[in-house]
Amino acid sequence: MPQKAEYKIRPFDDLVIGEIATLKRTITENDLEDFAKVSQDFNPIHLDEEAAKKSIFKGKVVYGMLLGSMISAVIGTKLPGNGYIYVKQELNFLKPARIGEELTVTVKLLRKFDEKKHVELETLIFNEKNELLVRGTARGKAPF
Amino acid sequence: MNNALRKKAEKSFGEGEVQSYAGITGDFNPIHLDKKFAEKTVFKERIVSGALPIGFIHSLYRELLGAEFRLLKQRAKFLGPVYFGEGIVFEAECKVKGKKFLCSSKARTKQGKTVIEENSEIMLKD
Question: B107 near B116, Cβ under 8 Å?
Answer without folding.
Answer: yes
